[in-house]
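Re: [ENG-882] Designed sequences occasionally contain unexpected residues at chain ends

Forwarding the minimal case from QA. Structure tokens:
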């Protein structure tokens, strides 16, 4: 079986598809037209932004707690790792990297508690990367 059809059959398929396409009585939306939301009764409520304002304070509070809590946890972990590596036979670079990463995470926790969550989260990433350098040097 080659998968090819006769030309007569193919013309019939094209004609049938065209007829089925032309018999639709439903209006088709214009894809280039701007959506006004007239058919959606809840669209006006969403456009006002009332729903977003209701949760804005809660989302900001959650982001502050997340940034501050994560920063504090990573700070404790970094300082604990620095103390453990300081007592061992690791090179000086290892505990220094852990301590520096923990200090960056402490700064991130401070910024997170004051509402600077985006900067705090980026500093958390940098702090963990510095601690990872210390881990790789071990």
């Amino acid at each position: 079986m080659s998968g090819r059809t006769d030309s007569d059959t193919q013309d019939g398929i094209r004609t049938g598809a065209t007829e089925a396409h032309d018999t639709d009585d439903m209006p088709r939306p214009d894809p280039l037209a701007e959506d006004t939301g007239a058919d959606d009764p809840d669209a006006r409520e969403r456009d006002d932004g009332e729903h977003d304002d209701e949760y804005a304070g809660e989302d900001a509070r959650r982001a502050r707690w997340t940034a501050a809590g994560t920063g504090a946890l990573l700070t404790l972990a970094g300082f604990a790792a620095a103390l453990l590596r300081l007592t061992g036979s690791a090179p000086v670079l290892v505990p220094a990297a852990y301590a520096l990463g923990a200090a960056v995470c402490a700064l991130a926790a401070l910024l997170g508690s004051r509402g600077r969550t985006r900067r705090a989260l980026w500093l958390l990433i940098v702090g963990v990367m510095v601690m990872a350098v210390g881990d790789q040097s071990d």
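QA comment: On inspection the terminal residues look reasonable. The chain has a mean pLDDT of 78. Proposing we downgrade this to a documentation issue.
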